[in-house]
Amino acid sequence: SFLQGSKLEIPLWLAKGLHDSKRRIISTELPKIYREAWRTVFSADANVVDLHKMGPYYYSFGSQLLNFDNPENPEIAQTILQTFISRFRRIMDSSQNAYNEDTSALVARLDELERALFRAGQKGLNDFQCWEKGQASQITASSLVQNYGKRKFTDMDG
């Protein structure tokens, strides 16, 4: 058994299950990358941070943290959003302009969401270049656009 005030690391899913604002079974402590000192670093220049090293699921994990009653939630949410905005342009620019170059150093520093965006950008560029050279018979809508269209249509049905 654990004494009151004991600290231990548990998975996020378990912390969410035990977290109850009425009964106060557990209280949570922010991982260091979401604390004020790191938020200051992100606001100064988010592009210098190696997100993969700090936490490969920075955005998704951070958004899950907002389920806990932390007084710093508004600042955490703002930092996550601003980090994404400030890094997005560089990621997409790199995915479009670094064709046939070694991008492993850049990609190694990206969160998993950013890596997926980078790959999507490179695939889009590759598909366009194939079409431009006549190597593709037609341009097709990306799966993201197709899924968005299906969702909108389904929403209208309900």
Automatic annotation (TrEMBL):
The keyword Coiled coil does not apply. InterPro entries: GINS_A, GINS_bundle-like_dom_sf, GINS_Psf3, GINS_Psf3_sf. GO terms for biological process: mitotic DNA replication initiation. The keyword Nucleus applies. Its main location: nucleus. Residues 38-131 form the GINS subunit domain. GO terms for cellular component: GINS complex. It is found in: Nucleus. Keywords: DNA replication, Nucleus. Pfam families: Sld5 (PF05916). It comes from the Eukaryota. Component of the GINS complex. PANTHER family: DNA REPLICATION COMPLEX GINS PROTEIN PSF3. Belongs to the GINS3/PSF3 family. Required for correct functioning of the GINS complex, a complex that plays an essential role in the initiation of DNA replication, and progression of DNA replication forks. GINS complex is a core component of CDC45-MCM-GINS (CMG) helicase, the molecular machine that unwinds template DNA during replication, and around which the replisome is built. The GINS complex plays an essential role in the initiation of DNA replication. This is DNA replication complex GINS protein PSF3.
